[in-house]
Design a protein that fits this description.
single chain; alpha+beta; Nucleotidyltransferase, domain 5; 23% strand
Amino acid sequence: MKRYIWFYLLVKFFDTSFIALLVYVDDIVLTGHCISEIQFVKTFLDKQFCIKDLGQLRFFLGFEIARSKSGILLNQRKYTLELLEDAEILGSKPAATPFDPSTKLEATKGTPLTDTSSYRRLIGRLLYLTNTRPDISYSVQHLSQFVSKPTVLHYQAAQRILKYLKSAPAKSMFFSASSELKLHGFADLDWACCPDTRRQVTGYCVLLGSSLISWKSKKQSTVSRSSTEAEYRALAHLTCEIQWLNYLFHGLQVNFSKPASVYCDNRLAVYLAQNPTFHERSKHIELDCHVVREKINSKLIHLLLVSSASQLADIFTKSLHSTSFQSILSKLQLCDIHASPSPT
């Protein structure tokens, strides 16, 4: 299941600053360095289209924005509460994690669900929520595989995600005002984890300084012959994402420290990426995966080995127990402003 929201980003540069205009249908977000230029654009748009100025950004397409001197907090609290109310979950006991690690779901296991539309609608709404809730990305990705023929077991697993959301509906992404302009990426996988197809789930996340700005959890379309090959593919996906972010920053005339630090917990995958010899171990791997080696040589990324205990992308590839789950969330700068003070 895929949902696309198309935005238009228009940028105008000046000698020492720029302004950016983000447009979705008839909703507009305007930002920049120069207040006078922002006012000029607002006046121009008002003359052309008779716009309504809502002041400082606080709410946009279900996203709620809070500011402090420390940085910006982004969440979908109102959207989450509406979702819980519609699903009649507000009175239920909250769950500590979005997915039970002991639960193993299969495509045909369980009693077929009579009302399949309710399951599909719920997964669709949860997919939109993953825009600010990376903590449920793996669970929603996993359950979205069963939308064609959902069972009661699949629906019960989706209900657990809602019970987890009830425990912290206002959990927010924090973008620190003091983050260094350097990218850090983590890539990981769960090899041959799907009992139906034996395909692996790969995941990655990218942080700007200490702030999470990009992530993905996805079951791959091919079966890898080894965990090394699968990990190498995960690195390739992360490398392409960092390349795209590099283009975006360049377009915004933002300079950041290069190369980006990329972390992987598979020693053989790191060796394969750094070894220029196309040897027996890698001859079956498609050429597009070797973008990792190319970007290492061009100094876009710097590949480093990390321990499995410090692998932040773990949360995007598998269900974790509460202790490990909460530990990773704290490192990804997810916080609840209604439960504790904002980070400083």
